[in-house]
Write a structure and sequence with these properties.
The structure is a single chain. The protein is an alpha/beta fold and about 425 residues long. The chain folds into 2 domains: about 200 residues, FAD/NAD(P)-binding domain (3-Layer(bba) Sandwich), CATH 3.50.50; about 200 residues, FAD/NAD(P)-binding domain (3-Layer(bba) Sandwich). It is about 25% helix and about 20% strand. It is built from 10 helices and 21 strands. The strands form 6 sheets. Strands 1, 2, 5, 6, 7, 8 and 21 form a 7-stranded mixed beta sheet that branches. A hairpin with a 2-residue loop joins strand 13 and strand 14. Helix 1 packs parallel to helix 10 and helix 5 crosses helix 8. The longest helix is centred in the last third of the chain and has 26 residues. The radius of gyration is 24 Å and the shape is globular. This is Putative flavoprotein involved in K+ transport. InterPro entries: Auxin_biosynth/cation_transpt (IPR050982), CHP04046_FMN-dependent (IPR024000), FAD/NAD-bd_sf (IPR036188).
Length: about 425
């Protein structure tokens, strides 16, 4: 009896596959539609899932609404200097998506991408695709980061990651130790503080920014200064710039800056960076004051940039009071007994890492970071969008993602024209 080998499952071919339907993937789709490039957008959840499902209740933009500049869809509301809250953000991105007919397939998980004979094979849990181009727009927030020593913490102490936090009532009764002072960490700490919860903070080296300074929002000044136009290639140390934590401040209740020294003066107990855990013992590095100084250095540096610009341009702007350190730690606490301190939960706010296990294409460096120039890889037909500092500070945000998507799609269209000519 002869045995006939199984035929490989048929693949649907398109010119371009876009992986991910957040603002980056949908911006790419917009320009692909406009350029007449056949494509499909594959999204494992639903479009804009992160905005809809991975944000806490009081979440709002940290950058003002005027920076929302998706392709041909700028913010059109009546509060350009305000800060949209979560539901308004969802309405904005949905409005953008409804402005064109994207070939979107939701609930489709990409399981493997590899290049075979000049064509990309894209395997999913809902069928097989092939493409001449693949745009990876899946973002960098796949895997929440927790340190290995977190496994040694007493299991009676609840551990929550920022991705799972929605509201203060999610946190068990008792004292919560928030770990990390990026934008999420300080805002979640403040959320708990406003709710009257007993909260403490392990302070990392994240920088901070003024909010309103000399008559304007600091981001307005940075815009006219040209800060948002500086490219990653123009940075003195591009790798270090890519790894930097965003400056912390808040858009809550009209926007305000966050000075952790003021919270400490008002009773917030703070420690340095968490260095170890064992049972109910939590250890910290003696770097609290150093980290506060690092944050203040960036804060003062931004003020000085603005001051210099105002002076150079002869702008009539109100004076601002001199910066003052309103609190300093009297001593560095390097070890506590969480049980004795009444700590019943730890809220981890130390970031995420992307998961590219499905991407079997040689386009990443030894650290696992994509190798590209403004989203275009050396591997023909491979592209990335939506990453922080892909090209400028705004690349991973509403401000700059459209320009990057336009740039990538123009490269795809040009390659197509060249191929047809040949």
């Amino acid at each position: 009896m002869s045995v006939h080998p199984l035929k490989p499952a048929p693949r649907t071919h398109v010119t371009t596959v876009v992986v991910g339907a957040g603002q980056a993937g949908m911006s790419a789709s917009y320009y692909l539609c406009r350029a007449g490039v056949d494509h499909v957008v594959l999204e494992r959840h639903q479009r804009f899932h992160a905005w809809k499902a991975d944000r806490w209740d009081s979440f709002c933009l940290v950058t003002p609404n005027w920076q929302c500049r998706l392709p041909d869809y700028p913010y059109r509301g009546d509060d350009p200097t305000g800060f949209m809250v979560k539901d308004q953000i969802v309405d904005y991105v949905e409005g953008f998506c409804n402005s064109f007919a994207a070939p979107l397939q939701e609930g489709v998980t990409v399981t493997r991408v590899q290049k075979v004979g000049g064509v990309f094979e894209v395997d999913t849990d809902r069928g097989l695709w092939s493409a001449d181009h693949v745009i990876v727009a899946s973002g960098g927030y796949d895997t929440p980061i927790t340190p290995a020593f977190a496994d040694r913490l007493d299991p009676a102490i609840a551990q929550i990651h920022s991705k799972s936090y929605r509201r203060p009532s999610d946190i068990p009764d008792g004292t919560c130790l928030v770990v990390g002072t990026g934008q999420s960490g300080v805002q979640m700490m403040e959320d708990l503080w406003i709710a009257g919860r007993d909260v403490r903070l392990a302070v990392g080296p994240a920088p901070r920014s003024p909010r309103w300074y000399r008559g304007r929002d600091a981001t307005d000044w940075l815009h006219v200064l040209g800060y948002y136009d500086i490219t990653i290639a123009q940075q003195p140390d591009p790798a270090a710039t890519e790894g930097k934590t965003n400056h912390y401040m808040s858009g809550r209740d009209g926007g305000h800056e966050i000075d952790l020294r003021r919270f400490a003066r008002d009773g917030l107990r703070m420690y340095g960076s968490v260095s170890d855990m064992d049972g109910t013992t939590i250890r910290f590095l003696p770097d609290l004051e150093q980290n506060l100084d690092t944050a203040d250095k960036s804060y003062v540096g931004i003020r000085q940039m603005i001051d210099a610009y105002i002076a150079h341009e002869g702008i009539d702007a109100p004076e601002a009071p001199a910066f003052e350190k309103v609190w300093r730690p009297q001593r560095e606490i390097t070890e506590i007994d969480a049980a004795a301190e009444g700590i019943t939960s730890v809220l981890w706010c130390i970031g995420f890492r992307p998961n590219y296990d499905w991407l079997q294409v040689d386009c990443r460096d030894a650290r696992g970071r994509p190798i590209h120039t403004r989203g275009i890889c050396d591997v023909d037909g491979m592209y990335f969008l939506g990453l922080g500092w892909l090209h400028t500070w705004g690349s991973g945000r509403f401000l700059g993602v459209a320009q990057d998507a336009d740039h990538v799609v123009k490269a795809i269209a040009q390659r197509g024209r060249t191929a047809r000519a040949v």
